[in-house]
Amino acid sequence: MKTKLFIILIFFIVLILPFFSFSSLAKYQFENSFLVARLELDNTPPEIKLLSFSNTNTQYPKYANKTHTITTRIQIIEDYISEINLDTNHIKIKVNDKLVSAIFKKITCISESEHIYDIVFTNVSSDGDLSITFLEGTAIDTSMQNNSEKTFYSNILIDNTAPVSIFSEELISDNYSKGTIKVNESIQPVNGWDISSDNRILSRTFPNPIEYELPIKDFAQNPASPLVSIKKASNIILEYGAYDAGTNNTYLVTLGSIAGEQVINSDSICKTEALFIRTSGSLNQSSLKGRAFLYTYYGEGSSGTCKFTELRYNYGYNPLSSWRTVNKENLAYLSGKIFTEFGGTGVNYAAKGGSNPIPEEIAKQYLYGLSGISLSLDDYSEYSVVYQIYIKGVGWLPAKYNGQETMYRFDKPFSAIRINIVPNSQRQYLVDYWNAGN
């Protein structure tokens, strides 16, 4: 009996009970959710973006050479960066799309949050259009995705080749010469010279012979120094000669040439005792002035007389501390022309002149006279006068101009001199050329 009732109860529970519904008597019902995993799907690889190119050639920023420093600013577009490889294995410098050598100076992080960097390099070789390439793997995100290789063009022309030029001279009206410099590429304007619209031809006029090197630069700052050599012009004429006590000769030369060159090349102890100068042409005859220091062993305040010209000369500046006008004072005839004489011949001969005769051994050492000189112009608005003296055993002293004194030592007279009249804008070029030993 009991067994039968147990079987009926089991049948009721298994087959019938599931079809009944019950109302919950609970006040609250709860629902629970559980986070098993968070999945971030990143299908976009890192991207390198160019922000700017800059160049230390600030005057002409679209040109550069090996001396200039170039900065490339980039940004890496990626939120989840795993690795950044800004190094020479991943960054390549190209010129005309060909790999070239360069020196990386530094790589600087400008903003960590925005991933902005400056890549600074210099000493770029070759000639052509500059570009920079970032290889795959320069930036890697947390999903291990690499950036794609990318090349950025800078709009900067690399130019490491100096300009090549040709100079020519043409005699024009009023005995002026026109100097022309033709260059194989565009160059920067040069002070005192006219330049063509394509920046390839320089020109200017000259009133007298002159020779010097003119510094020029192309837009990439590559220098060249074409030789300006004017020989035909004669609008301004300056003649001068140094009297050589050893040969008793005065060799006359014109603007820029060396008076006394024969003394430089000889073993004679004789130096320049007297200097003769004259001007002609369009230069006003009273505009050039000079003063010279004449060293003697007769003592301060002494004087003498030139045995050829009978002109009187004094110890110290002639006359002392004053300027002598060329073509107007202390005139002497030489080769049928009138010159102004500075100093005098026959200085410091043994037992001659002054109150204290000079011993023979002293005379053999000091058979000369002019130690220093200054030259000036009345008007410097357009031209300058440049001059330089040569001291035996010392060489050429630094060139002077416009009234500056040039002297090595009172008792060390000069052997040779050169003088020139030069447009003001070209003065420093001539001074530099002479000082370089040309």
Describe what you observe in this structure:
- Residues 1-30 and 34-39 have low confidence and may be disordered.
- The chain has a 5-stranded mixed sheet, with no helix packed on it. The chain has a 5-stranded antiparallel sheet with strand order 21-20-23-30-29, with no helix packed on it. Strands 22, 32, 33, 34 and 36 form a 5-stranded antiparallel sheet that branches.
- It folds into 3 domains: 47-158, Sandwich (Immunoglobulin-like), CATH 2.60.40; 165-230, no CATH class; 236-435, no CATH class.
- The protein is mainly β.
- The chain is elongated and about 105 Å long.
- Helices cover 8% and strands 42% of the residues.
The helix-and-strand class reads: mainly beta
Roughly what percent helix? Answer: under 10%
**How many domain regions?**
3
Rg calc: 44 Å
Sheet with the most strands: spatial strand order: 2-11-9-5-6
Q: Oligomeric form of this entry?
A: single chain
Q: Which spans of ≥5 residues are poorly predicted at pLDDT below 50?
A: 1-30, 34-39
Would you tell me the overall average pLDDT?
Answer: 86
Overall body shape: elongated
**Largest sheet, if any?**
5 strands, mixed
